[in-house]
């Protein structure tokens, strides 16, 4: 270090200065968008594909030159399924990172946990969780001003299932649900809507997300001899319950799964037990089996190809939620630029937005923009989905 | 830590008081202020638990249940009955005290792992109630719209205001507990920890003392729960589950079980680790967390609070 | 029809409860083996079960090795993990208080769980049932053949352990450690080796539980903690340290869960089991078959 000349020192200093300048360059040339997903933890099967999808979409847009020459900067935080963390990250996104909009969280409970912040800080939130409570303020009965969501409501899945039951002349059913937010929300809707369809619920059974066997609940149901079973869960339990149903020889009792069943991996894991099971699915789950003239055929096939090519795993509905949310934000940025209030207004008035989960028609009264037509009833046939005609 | 020195308390208090101002000056650290609100709430929990475990030597693997009872008392009573939040806080503390009395009286007769299991079972049962009584608790999705706190027209609506509220409560709890430890009660508790038989022979009413400490820890936890609920404006059962009980044990072991300072250091450290620092490891987070915990357990048997003493001993040798 | 269905229902609940209980019992036995020698509650016990399932999936399904070889290899791999747990996490602890050692096992369980997530990802995996998926029908009773394997392996483990502890020098040495560690040291037993052996054996039993459970319930990285808690509950219910107690505790727990879900509100099924556990503890503070006299020798 003896021959350290003044020249070298100056160069190092200059280099350091240049680096600092670059690092502190004012961020005019980018749009900041935030995301909160349950990437790890028990709900990672939701957050993981959502994060991958959001990042993929942003990378595509940026590679194509961004929006009006501006790049999108996506800031993703992992809430790990924890409400406290979701709250901290939401605060950070709106007050410190100063993002224009936030997509996520992955779960209904966590979305409900942070809605007050978005109303307070006047920032658009497009949730990737299903509960109707996200887009209905219980006090006013109207949507929260700044909050939207992309997944279909559970009530739509329930109506799609009950429509199918009416066609099959099913009136006596049993329901099963997992004791998580997902299961509880589906169960509420099943119990609430059943009377309108003249459907009688003869059993209402529950199990824990980490349970290893549901034979006891099914045995109880078998003795009551309903015509059908509706099961509302996500994760491994929905596969275990199917296996138990098959083992108990209950095939005569038609089995309906919720839209949470929408991954081919579940059919494989069921090892044949899923054959003949009905479930309502969004177009994004069944891109290949959609007829060519279906309005969502093109977008869903494109996403399917891009996602599977990039991540080498099958697409899920959950990734589709993030795809729709991300594209709604991008679409708004393209039309109105980086103004939070204008982005909100743009999404609220967006019509005929063709996404993975449906064709969205938002309005001041409806911050979800979907109807039960966003679901198609499918049945598992020869180890794959088939549309019910 | 037999004597409570005034010096460290004053320095600590000034440091805590200046923190929000410091964070406010540095935009990159702004998000540490709400984080420190939760750290303060955790401190309330660990102060009580430290008294129970470090001083009275009784394990509790169900402490999150009392935290939850406080939070749900605040949530349910404000939302369904429109009661004043401070009244709800009081009700939560009272409810936690009664439950602690009811469960503590038979449970604290148990020893070691049996007590651990009994408290663990209690914690799980309470959590199942939070999940299942949907009509009141909102079920797994949680309770939305819990109001904030205000006192004589002064609303604790900004983060910084809530920060000072929480840390004031922590300071009061700390001083109260520190005094308790120095009093004859504290000496009796330590005697129980060292040898129950000897303490009994000396005429200390062991069973009653244990239950009193258990109730005290439960009340502090319930207060923490109420503060949490009114800050978040939302609660769900996941926050109060078994894994949080274990997290609390980790906090006081990490910080040092036999010292109130240790309890606070552990609480703040875990808040920083789990809300902030560990996030940079992405998928590796849980592995790194485990490694940090293992290293502290192996090399710092007295927890981080014992660090100065260890260093001193090393130097003297 | 109704009464016919009812008796079958009872039998079905029984079979389910016995199977689930057998898994809990295996975890509880694992707890006891380590507890007896070290007084420590190994909270990473559930991770052995998880690893057993996932390693078996890798060796049997991914590598395609035949069942028996894959079974043996899996048990071996998990046993090595158990031994490593002792060497890397338990033995190095400077001041081995019971609390410090328990926290060390918690830390280890995080590392094992996180490692499994990094290796296998977050998705659940399936394993073919040992003797096919065709259920056995006896009268109206439906039996999955895998249930019999689970119960069968519990019986094998119980017999093997009884022989080991009563007929072999090593087993007797371990029992001596369990009764009184200091006395065992005085008569020349290498207590450290016994601890290592305890971790190995207990990991192996965990692996067997995981291998037999996976064809019924699938397996993913996140399953360990819940199994550990249920196993702990079973061990305490039966009386910590007692092997017949572990089996009894596991089976009772499984039966309460199964009958509770079947006859009462299924959402509260885990609560029923734990309430019964609490009541038992309040009446008998050392579990059903636990002995207060033995517990007195323990530090914790």
Short note summarizing the structure:
Chain A is α/β, with parallel strands linked by helices and 389 residues long. Chain A has twelve helices and 14 strands.
Account of the 3D structure:
The complex is a heterotrimer of chains A (389), B (317) and C (300). Chain A has 389 residues and is of the alpha/beta class. Chain A is 42% helix and 17% strand. In chain A, strand 13 (376-381) and strand 14 (384-387) form a beta hairpin. Chain B has helices spanning 6-25, 32-55, 63-81, 85-107, 112-132, 134-137, 159-182, 184-194, 196-201, 206-232, 242-255, 260-275, 285-299, 307-316, and strands at residues 143-144, 150-151, 154-155, 234-235. In chain B, the strands form 2 sheets. Chain B has a two-stranded antiparallel ribbon with strand order 1-4. In chain B, strands 2-3 form a two-stranded antiparallel ribbon. Helix content of chain C is 75%, strand content 2%. Chain C has helices at 2-38, 45-62, 67-90, 98-120, 145-167, 169-179, 181-186, 191-217, 224-238, 243-263, 269-283, 292-295; strands at 136-138, 141-143.
What topology, given as strand order, has the largest sheet of chain A?
2-1-3-4-5
Helix fraction of chain B by DSSP (H/I, runs of at least 4)? over 70%
Structural class of chain B: mainly alpha
Number of strands of chain B: 4
CATH class of chain B: Mainly Alpha
Considering the chains and any ligands shown, give keywords for the structure.
heterotrimer, B: 317 residues, mainly alpha, two-stranded antiparallel sheet, 14 helices, C: 300 residues, 12 helices, 2 strands, globular
Which helices and strands, and how do they pair?
The complex is a heterotrimer of chains A (389), B (317) and C (300).
Chain A (H helix, E strand, L loop, with lengths): L5 H18 L6 E8 L6 H20 L7 E8 L4 H14 L4 E3 L4 H13 L4 E3 L19 E3 L4 H14 L4 E7 L2 H13 L6 E8 L7 H10 L3 E5 L4 H11 L6 E4 L6 H6 L8 E4 L15 H15 L5 H20 L3 H9 L4 E2 L4 E2 L15 E6 L2 E4 L2
Parallel strand pairs in A: 1-2, 1-3, 3-4, 4-5, 6-7, 6-8, 8-9
Antiparallel strand pairs in A: 10-13, 11-12, 13-14
Helix pairs in contact in A: 2-11, 3-4, 5-6, 11-12
Chain B lengths: L5 H20 L6 H24 L7 H19 L3 H23 L4 H21 L1 H4 L5 E2 L5 E2 L2 E2 L3 H24 L1 H11 L1 H6 L4 H27 L1 E2 L6 H14 L4 H16 L9 H15 L7 H10 L1
Antiparallel strand pairs in B: 1-4, 2-3
Chain C lengths: L1 H37 L6 H18 L4 H24 L7 H23 L15 E3 L2 E3 L1 H23 L1 H11 L1 H6 L4 H27 L6 H15 L4 H21 L5 H15 L8 H4 L5
Antiparallel strand pairs in C: 1-2
Helix pairs in contact in C: 1-5, 1-6, 1-8, 1-9, 1-10, 2-3, 2-4, 2-8, 2-9, 3-8, 5-6, 5-8, 6-8, 9-10, 10-11
